Amino acid sequence: MKHRILFLIAVILGVAACGPADGIRTIRTTTQTEADLGRIKEADGPVTVRLLCKNDYPDTLYPVQLHTPCRCTKVRFDRKPVPPGEDEVLELTYDPAYRPGLMMESIDVYYRNSPVKIRNFVIKGEVIGCVHPIEEDRPYHLGEGLYTSHKVLHFGSREAGQTADMYFRYGNGNRKKADITFEIPREWSSCVRMRQPGRMKADERDTLHVKFTMPSPADTVEFAIQPLVNGIPTQEKLVVKAVPKK
Question: CB of 148 within 8 A of CB of 135?
């Protein structure tokens, strides 16, 4: 019985020794398959994995550089020759911040004097999003619990009659429902078009599409839109700006 216990302990220790000493998850993949990272919690921050891909070519691979289209994915690799039958190792870190839902990213590795010029690797998974503080992407508190991504809606240089679009984020930072409206001065109502948010839930957030048409004759434009929360004007206003095109 004692020998059996010692044997089991040795097996367990041996299995542990075969695992990655640094704790980084290792995934064996090919250029024809997608490496599945599974469910990734945004709240846990960036996740790091190690990809292993065997060199199935009869000649050595000489990696020289790599490319990732998204800044959310950073890859480290050694520019060492990969002999036939050996593994190429890519250590990548994926940042799930503000990317809830299904994800799929690619990594291109380029080679020189090799049997192939490029190999493409794909990672996929599902990001479980978390609730961010409203101030993170709507940093301006106009008052009465109303937060926006902009304080100035600048439509740039425009010719008379020319229409421009802008999107800005807003949100109800109150702990209860609130009626949100934006009061456009009557003399500018024909130049600005935007829907009224209306009733918003506590901590509800949304984006507004604003259309601005440069008045004729074209002149420097600057006026304020008054936000109201439950009919109460906020301490600060949204400012609309535009200048005539020269």
Answer: no
User: Are the C-beta atoms of 246 and 159 separated by less than 8 Å?
Assistant: no
| 57 touches 63 (CB < 8 A) | no
Residue with structure tokens 């490319």?
Answer: 67
Q: What is the pLDDT of residues 39-60, one digit of tens each?
A: 999 999 999 999 999 999 999 9
Question: Please, what's the b/e burial string for 101-139 (b: 16 or more CB within 10 A of its CB; e: otherwise)?
Answer: eebebebebebeebeeeebebebebebebeeeebeeebe
Per DSSP, the three-state class of 187 is: helix
Integer angstrom CA distances of residue 46 from 38, 42, 73, 127: 14, 8, 9, 11
Third-level CATH fold of 24-128: Immunoglobulin-like (2.60.40)
Q: Where are the domains of the chain?
A: 24-128, 134-244
- Report pLDDT for 11: 39
Residue 4's pLDDT band, with cuts at 50, 70 and 90, is low
Q: Measured between alpha carbons, how far is residue 36 from residues 69, 109, 159 in Å?
A: 18, 19, 51
Residue 22 confidence (pLDDT): 73
pLDDT (average), residues 94-112: 95
- 134-244: what CATH class? mainly beta
